[in-house]
Specification:
Number of strands: 5
Structural class: alpha+beta
Largest sheet: 5 strands, antiparallel
Helix content: 40-55%
Strand content: 15-25%
Strand order of the largest sheet: 1-2-3-5-4
Order of helices and strands: HEEEHEEHH
Number of domains: 1
CATH class: Alpha Beta
CATH architecture: 2-Layer Sandwich
Mean pLDDT: 85
Length: 156
Amino acid sequence: MGLREIIDLLSQKLQQPLQPDSLGVYHFIVNERFSLHVERASDEKTLFLYAEVAVIPTTFQHSVLRVAMEGNLYGRQTGKGILGYDPQASSLIYTQRFPEDIPAEQFYEELEQYLGILKFWQDKVEDIVLQDPSEHFVDSKVKEALGKQDLEIYMA
């Protein structure tokens, strides 16, 4: 099964036609929550499925990226996919590769797993960002203060 057949089957399931953009990327939304993208790799034997997990606020980049890299390690929390960082969009991206000749049933099984992992990471990033922001505020203020040479220390 090739990209065209997968797109045709997705179009039927989603009950909407899918057309590639000018770069050959197909964009579609699943369950009104997940904005997914599918494209053929340059080797023309592989398909890439990818989605933005979240835009990462600057103050949380270190925390989110550390947790993401720990989850990436040995595929413990990423299944058959990988997490990456898009610096231009400040986004965490979840990507999975598929052989272009993947059978339809297997593609849909793996798509279901992919969506579960994507949801897991969206929730995980949201938890990090919603945790007590004072921790990140204090951390940045301590680093800022340590960089100053004329520190005044007050004892109470």
